[in-house]
TrEMBL record, chain A:
Keywords associated with the record: Membrane, Transmembrane, Transmembrane helix
Gene: mlaE
Identification of the protein by name: Putative phospholipid ABC transporter permease protein MlaE
TM region(s), chain numbering: 52-74, 150-174, 194-221, 242-260
InterPro entries: Permease_MalE (IPR030802)
GO cellular component entries: ATP-binding cassette (ABC) transporter complex
Species assigned in the record: Pseudoprimorskyibacter insulae
GO MF annotation terms: phospholipid transporter activity
A Pfam family assignment: MlaE
UniProtKB/TrEMBL annotation, chain B:
Spans traversing the lipid bilayer: none
Highest taxon listed in the record's lineage: Bacteria
Domain (ABC transporter): residue spans on this chain: 2-237
Name used for this protein in its record: Putative ribonucleotide transport ATP-binding protein mkl
A Pfam match: ABC_tran
Recorded GO MF terms: ATP binding; ATP hydrolysis activity
Signal peptide: none
Organism: Pseudoprimorskyibacter insulae
SUPFAM superfamilies: P-loop containing nucleoside triphosphate hydrolases
Keywords of the record: ATP-binding, Nucleotide-binding, Transport
Length: 261, 248
């Protein structure tokens, strides 16, 4: 085999593996959606997932947002000073947090916290035969493990994004009024006047998409896990990598869609 | 009655089952023995539908196991997994009553808890264990909880995968006795996988030896020590020399 053919063969194998993975993920997503609409439904599992994905993620989301909002205010103030535009801090912090940084950072935090946790939990269940045990107990793992987690993330991550947006804006507000000399009432009025409903809706829609991706990747990699501790480790690492990349790619696509509306 | 007819299963290039023919009479206890990696677990997972065989037929009471209502089919089975496979996030009683808290066998929560505690008593565990998490229990206690879960819905057929693996000899004896008592008491059909010859003698009515993907020997447990089959003889005596390669 010539080097050129060998290189092409390698490229072909990589491309085939990539498209096979895309196909498997797409089938997994379709199966998840299909199971979400067919009984039985596990309300207790859904409530549990809502608590773990939503409530327990609030501290990390809040801290990420407040520091990002504060840093954003400082950056815009310093950058704006170069062309006498320091006054736009409230508007840029608001639009930056709501349209871009809020959803993306919350999405990435969810990928780090929730995707990894879901993947590790399901992968461990797989290697310890708990998934097989579920089946022998007449319980479908997709319905019992996957649907509640994906549904919970789909419902609760937009709320987390909303909370993150507000906390981020308040982080900018605290820095602007505390250290940059902005008037508190004027800052809030400028923020409220500048934001449009479409900005908020796009933020929440991105949150829903990112939540779906984060939970789906956790479940997919967990269910596909190999054997032993190494299999669990690989599943966890792979799930976070895939979720983070897909969230950023989806953000680019959704931003393009929202701009075109 | 469970029947396997010419069942094959290959993973990649590894042909694990190469034509299994086996039958277990209703109410009897069959123990499958064989070396590690010979496909014992694959055999019972094929019956349960956890693994799909490549070819062959599996019949339960004359009906093809792969056809029909899956939930109704699985509701007839109980299974004790090798590592107990208890659900870490659920307390012991909810593990035991798992099948009774959802699906076609669903009962009111209080009744399911009562049944779970009764089954825990049956396997020698006190009610105070009910609210503990599986991680707080010893290996032997986890096996007992797994056993309680396997019998919680009074199944007709019970599978035991390496029930004494990892247990000390005394605890292994306790588990063996429990399995025998429960199977006799419930009149259930039992299939057990084990390497442990003490378990074989305590649990089995009949024994099947799996080697090279086929049943090499099959007969009553009383014939175990009088057989001249070289494979079975080597396995029972634990000899390094014989037709079974010591290093596989």
């Amino acid at each position: 085999m010539t080097p050129l053919i060998a290189a092409l063969a390698t490229l072909g194998r990589v491309a085939l593996a990539f498209f096979a993975s895309v196909g498997r993920v797409a089938l997994f997503a379709a199966s998840t959606i299909s199971h979400a609409f067919r009984p039985p439904f596990y309300a207790r599992e859904l409530a549990n997932a809502l608590f773990h994905v939503g409530w327990l993620s609030l501290p990390v989301v809040g801290l990420t947002a407040v520091f990002t909002g504060g840093a954003l205010a400082l950056q815009i103030y310093a950058g704006g000073a170069r062309f006498n535009a320091e006054a736009v801090v409230p508007q840029i912090v608001a639009i930056g947090m709501v349209r871009e940084l809020g959803p993306v950072l919350v999405g990435l935090m969810i990928a780090a916290r929730v995707t990894s946790s879901i993947a590790a939990e399901i992968a461990t269940m797989k290697v310890t035969e708990q998934i097989d045990a579920l089946v022998t107990l007449s319980t479908h793992p997709m319905k019992y493990l996957v649907v509640p987690r994906v549904l919970a993330a789909l419902l609760v991550v937009p709320l987390l994004v909303g909370v993150g947006d507000i906390i981020g804006i308040m982080g900018g507000y605290a820095v602007a009024t505390g250290t940059l000399g902005f008037n508190a009432a004027a800052y809030l009025k400028n923020t409220a006047d500048f934001l449009q409903l479409a900005d908020i809706l796009s933020s929440l829609a991105k949150g829903a998409a990112f939540g779906f991706i984060a939970a789906l990747m956790g479940c997919y990699f967990g269910m596909q896990s190999g054997r032993g501790a190494q299999g669990v480790g690989r599943a966890t690492k792979g799930s976070v990598e895939a979720a983070a990349v897909l969230i950023l790619a989806a953000n680019f696509l959704l931003t393009g869609v929202f701009f075109s509306l | 009655m469970i029947e396997m007819k010419n069942v094959h299963k290959t993973f990649g290039t590894n042909a694990v089952l190469r034509g299994i023919d086996l039958s277990v009479a209703k109410g009897s206890s069959l123990v499958i023995i064989g070396g590690s990696g010979t496909g014992k677990s694959v055999t019972i997972k094929c019956i349960l539908g956890l693994i799909e065989p490549d070819s062959g037929q599996i019949l339960v009471d004359g009906k093809d196991a792969s056809i029909g209502d899956r939930d109704a089919f699985l509701a007839r089975f109980g299974m004790l997994f090798q590592g107990a496979a208890l659900f870490d996030s659920l307390p012991v009683w909810q593990n035991v009553a798992f099948r009774l808290l959802r699906g076609s066998l669903k009962r009111p929560r209080a009744e399911a808890r009562e049944i779970a505690i009764e089954k825990l008593r049956r396997v020698g565990l006190t009610p105070d264990v009910a609210d503990r998490l599986p991680a707080e229990l010893s290996g032997g206690m986890q096996k007992r909880v797994g056993l309680a879960r396997a019998i919680a819905a009074d199944p007709e057929i019970i599978f035991f995968d390496e029930p004494t693996a990892g247990l000390d000899p005394i605890m292994a004896g306790v588990i063996n006795d429990l399995i025998r008592e429960i199977v006799v008491e419930m009149g259930a059909t039992a299939m057990t996988i084990t390497h442990d010859m003490n378990s074989v003698r305590a649990i089995a009515d009949n024994v099947a030896m799996l080697h090279d993907g086929v049943i090499k020997w099959n007969g009553p447990v009383t014939d175990l020590d009088t057989t001249e089959d070289p494979y079975l003889h080597q396995f029972i005596t634990g000899s390094a020399t014989g037709p079974i390669a010591a290093i596989r």
